[in-house]
Every structure is written in structure tokens, then in C-alpha cells.
Design goal:
This protein is of the alpha/beta class. The protein contains 13 helices and 14 strands. Helix 5 (105-118) links the parallel strand 4 (98-100) and strand 5 (121-124). The structure holds P-hydroxybenzoic acid.
């Protein structure tokens, strides 16, 4: 009994003493918990994020700050009701060093809650839930993607400037839909427009018909929408099939047409969207990223792949500053806060609340591309409402 306590104490002391570069020398692997959707309407988004993340790690020789990277994966199914159990599996059963996830805002909020309670480093590679870098912000929580407010707000500015007056909105009834519309409405109404109707359906439903009939009857000047993944493919096709595309212009946050154009075909042609990534940006980092991604995966990257790649970059920057020791949370955070992240989207840094401060591009679908046509909102900084840090 005594000797086992003694042994445990010794091991604990050794672990405490093992700081900085010692982690690398001791050969302790870095356990990265990937919690992403691999099934359901967001499955392709989860895969693209993982691809992007792995590409960066591979470019570093499979190691970050000298520690070999090992992955533990969970399919979160974009199901908030399973989210707390899923994240606890990674943190408590698998003892991951860091958490990377996820796509769905509701699932990400459950991850942020556990990260906040346990102090585990969390990097969110997509989900835009405003609270993650708002009321739930924490020194150990970072985002490599966007807040739901950002593309919505930028599109509200663009549409108001175009002189559009009356808009109907349509989206899924959950945090990402609600917050995209709220961001849109804030800028659009500030610019003199009015939201005349807000339509919703539960996530991840795709029975749009009754809502499209409502839009036809309402006759707004334009429609603003947030949909993504498989749902976005069906919405764009149904909107065109209902004959609305010709009469009521459709605008969206850029997820509507990112990673979806092969499936949407001509029904997406000409659509205008706002997002922090675009085709044809002439950024050297983007060119090299696209070449490497296409070579590795035989696929073109999309915004999700970029966000996965940048999540790995953020992790690499933080880990380098602490010599691979994830217990040094304050130093990890300071390094990331001071960093300029060399992203394929263009260089960005993080706000005080750890959300990217970034240009939101205006894009137009031309063939299979979301062609850059301008900047919708320069260096847009999410207000980080409710963040006390
Ligand atoms: C979200 O739930 O926050 C979400 C999901 C898919 C996207 C963007 C945001 O493409």
C-alpha cells in the first residue's frame, strides 16, 4: 500500500517536473481529440476540417512542438443531445490534451462548457455560436473560424448599400440560424432596410415547400438565408425549382455555396454571398495551400478545410511557446493572442475574446467557383458581447 502511494507520488512529481521541451524529449505523444460530424447533413464539413488539420500537422512532419500527434475521433452527429457525453468521453476517458471541434453551434456550446469547467484547451474550427467568444469566452477557448454574427452582419451592410429595402429571412431554428439572421438584421436595419418576415424550420429539416410558398406570397425585394452542407444543397435547388430565383434575388452567408457547388450545379449560378474565404484571392499562402490540399486529398479545399488548417496552426503556435506543455495555459494563450496567423484566407489575428478579426469577402457563384468580387466588410471584429476576460 505504502509503496504504491510512494510510486504514485513519484510519477506525479515526474509529470510535474516534465515541463517545456522535456515533453518532446520524453516522447509523450500529443493526444488531439477531434469531435466532428462524420454523419448527417454536416458530414462533408467535418471531413474537410479533419483534412485541413491533418495537412498542417503533416507539413510539420507529424509533430507539433516536438510532440508526435495522435488523434482520437468522435462522430458528434451534429446532435446537441449527445454532445456533453461525447466531449466527456474525450476529456475524461481518453484524457486528450486538446479538443478540436466542432461544426454545429449547439454541440460547440456543450464543448465550450466542458472546456471551461475542466480547463482543457479547445479550438473551434467552425461552429459560429456567438457565445463561444462572447458570454462563454475563456482563456483556454479559441476559434479559427468566425462568429455567426460576422458573415450575417457583412451581408446586411452590402444589401443595405445596394438600396434593397424589404427582406425576408429563412433559416434553421437554432443558434447558427438565429444569430446569422440577427447579425444580418442589425446591419441591414442600421442601413435603412426592414426585415419583413423571418421564416424558420427545425434543424436539420429540409421540407422547404411551405416556406417557399410563403416567400412567393410575401414578395420581398430579396431573401437572406443561412443554410450549410446537405441542407444548403437542397435549399438552393428548391428555391430555383419554385421559380423564385428569377423573381426574388437570394443572398446568404457564404456557407450556402461553399463545398456545395458540384451538387447545386446551375441552380447556384450568380448567387451573392459573404464569407471569410473566396476563390481567386491571389494570396500566395492560399495558392500553396490549395496545391498541397489537392495533391494530398485529390479534392479542392473549401472554407471548412481552411478553418481546420488554421486550427492546427493556432495549436502549433501555442504549443511552440510552451515547449509542448499544455498545462501552461496562460503562456499558451499569450502566444496565440499575439500571433498573426498566416491563413489561406489572408492573415488574421484573434480578438480579445479569441475570435478571428478578418475581412469578410463578397463572392459570386460563377460555374464551380465562389469568385471574389470585393470586400463586404474590412477587418470585421465580432463585438464579443458578454465576454469578460
Ligand atoms: C453552426 O452551427 O455554427 C454552423 C454550421 C455550419 C456552417 C456554419 C455554421 O457552415
Amino acid at each position: 500500500m505504502k509503496s504504491s502511494i510512494f510510486r504514485t507520488t513519484l510519477i506525479a512529481a515526474a509529470a510535474l517536473a516534465m515541463s517545456g521541451a522535456a515533453f518532446a524529449q520524453a516522447g509523450a505523444k500529443l493526444k488531439v481529440g477531434l469531435m466532428l460530424p462524420y454523419t448527417g447533413t454536416f458530414a462533408s464539413l467535418g471531413n474537410a476540417i479533419e483534412n485541413g488539420f491533418r495537412l498542417y500537422v503533416t507539413e510539420q512532419g507529424g509533430k507539433l512542438a516536438g510532440r508526435e500527434v495522435e488523434f482520437v475521433k468522435v462522430d458528434d452527429e451534429s446532435d446537441p443531445s449527445k454532445a456533453t457525453d461525447n466531449v466527456n468521453k474525450l476529456v475524461k476517458r481518453d484524457n486528450v490534451d486538446v479538443l478540436i471541434g466542432t461544426v454545429h453551434s449547439g454541440v460547440a456550446m456543450a464543448m465550450a462548457k466542458v472546456a471551461k469547467e475542466t480547463g482543457t484547451i479547445l479550438i473551434v474550427p467552425n461552429a459560429g455560436a456567438d457565445a463561444v467568444t462572447g458570454a462563454m469566452c475563456a482563456p483556454n477557448i479559441f476559434r479559427s473560424s468566425f462568429s455567426n454574427w460576422q458573415p450575417g452582419y457583412a451581408m446586411g451592410e452590402v444589401m443595405a448599400k445596394k438600396g434593397i429595402k424589404k427582406v425576408a429571412t429563412i433559416t434553421w431554428k437554432y443558434a447558427a440560424g438565429d444569430e446569422s439572421v440577427r447579425g444580418f438584421k442589425e446591419a441591414f436595419e442600421k442601413g435603412g432596410g426592414t426585415v419583413v418576415k423571418e421564416l424558420n424550420l427545425p434543424f436539420p429539416n429540409v421540407e422547404f415547400q411551405a416556406l417557399l410558398t410563403d416567400i412567393a406570397a410575401t414578395k420581398p425585394d430579396a431573401v437572406f438565408t443561412f443554410f450549410a452542407g446537405g441542407g444548403a444543397v437542397k435549399f438552393v435547388k428548391d428555391y430555383a425549382a419554385a421559380g423564385l430565383k428569377k423573381t426574388i434575388p437570394l443572398y446568404g452567408s457564404g456557407f450556402l455555396t461553399d463545398g456545395t457547388l458540384d451538387a447545386q450545379g446551375a441552380d447556384a449560378d450568380g448567387l451573392l454571398t459573404a464569407l471569410h474565404y473566396a476563390d481567386g484571392m491571389e494570396i500566395p499562402k492560399d495558392k500553396s495551400f490549395r496545391l498541397a490540399y489537392a495533391k494530398t486529398y485529390k479534392l479542392q479545399p473549401d472554407v471548412y478545410a481552411v478553418q481546420g488548417y488554421d486550427a492546427a496552426q493556432i495549436l502549433g503556435i501555442g504549443l511552440k511557446a510552451v515547449g509542448g506543455d499544455t498545462s501552461k495555459k496562460a503562456e499558451f494563450a499569450h502566444a496565440v493572442e499575439a500571433a498573426k496567423i498566416d491563413s489561406p484566407r489572408g492573415t488574421f489575428s484573434l480578438s480579445k475574446a479569441h475570435n478571428p478579426v478578418q475581412d469578410i469577402y463578397l463572392r459570386q457563384v460563377v460555374g464551380k467557383e465562389n469568385k471574389l468580387i470585393g470586400i463586404a466588410s474590412k477587418a470585421l471584429n465580432d463585438p464579443g458581447r458578454g465576454c469578460k476576460m
